[in-house]
Amino acid sequence: MPADRAALGAFLRSRRDRLTPAQAGITAFPGPRRVPGLRKEELAVLAGLSPDHYSRLEQGRQPTVTDQVVQALSRALQLDEVERQHLRDLAAPTSHRRWAGPETAQRPDPGMLRLMGALGHVPVLLLGRRSQVLAGNGLLRAVLGPALEPGASFARWLFLDPDARVRIVNWADFAAPAVGALRYEVGRHPDDRRLTDLVEELRRSDPDVARWWDDQRVTFRTSLTKHLTHPTAGPLTFGIESVVGPHDTEQRLVVYTVEPDSPTARVLPLLASWAAEPQESRQAGETAI
């Protein structure tokens, strides 16, 4: 079975297992049930497909999947918009989703850097493909630590650096969607070997990643509340929002927003002053050279 069709079948099975006949608005077919959710035959009826056609889809034996079938399955499985797009990506022929030629080095989008500069009063992080750090401001390093320099992998820091679990109080609430975002990216770029290698590395190294990966959840630009504990400033609370640039949709600006006059907002200027001191020293040293 081709890898892309295996991924399609696994995603369909996982979404079918989570939806019961009652939730789907149908009467369960008679006979003993051996699945937690819908039977293949029940989903086929809901989607207007023959049972054989749907079985071929789930078993990876259907070479082509039309957009009409994708839409019908999305409605029947009650997929949200992110899941619908993921299903479209998985259903598309692999040849339509490959990288267009050799990959060039990722460079921060100038417009995103200007936006980052305008948001210097809050922590900001610019991420590219495979969660590579493209840029980050001084407040980000003051809040999360020095590990997230340009070129670093945010995913490796999040899952493999013990400091991440110490600093992020609600680590699991933040980490699980990060795995879903990696799955979404793999669906869009199944032939990106460096991306699949990263996922396999994380799955081998962290049982949480392996468990979340197997549940087939997909996420994209999820807004979350992030609770941190800072070694000096103490508890910090941020609302995490993502902005995708108009010129390169593979780059996203992650902004750590704060409530006005909150304890976190009041301590950020102090953290910014601490962050500025070593940065100014580095810039002075570079000028002298």
Fold blueprint:
Layout: H1 3-17, H2 21-24, H3 40-47, H4 51-58, H5 67-76, H6 81-91, H7 110-118, E1 124-127, E2 133-136, H8 138-144, H9 154-160, H10 162-167, H11 171-188, H12 193-205, H13 207-214, E3 224-230, E4 234-244, E5 252-257, H14 263-288
Antiparallel strand pairs: 1-2, 1-5, 3-4, 4-5
Helix pairs in contact: 3-4, 3-5, 5-6, 8-14, 11-13, 12-13
Structure, explained:
The chain is an alpha+beta fold and 289 residues long. It folds into two domains: 3-93, lambda repressor-like DNA-binding domains (434 Repressor (Amino-terminal Domain)), CATH 1.10.260; 110-288, Beta-Lactamase, CATH 3.30.450.180. Helices cover 52% and strands 11% of the residues. The protein contains 14 helices and five strands. It has helices at residues 3-17, 21-24, 40-47, 51-58, 67-76, 81-91, 110-118, 138-144, 154-160, 162-167, 171-188, 193-205, 207-214, 263-288, and strands at 124-127, 133-136, 224-230, 234-244, 252-257. It has a five-stranded antiparallel sheet with strand order 2-1-5-4-3. A hairpin with a 3-residue loop joins strand 3 and strand 4 (234-244). Helix 8 crosses helix 14 (263-288). The protein is elongated, with a radius of gyration of 22 Å. The model is unreliable at 279-289 (pLDDT under 50).
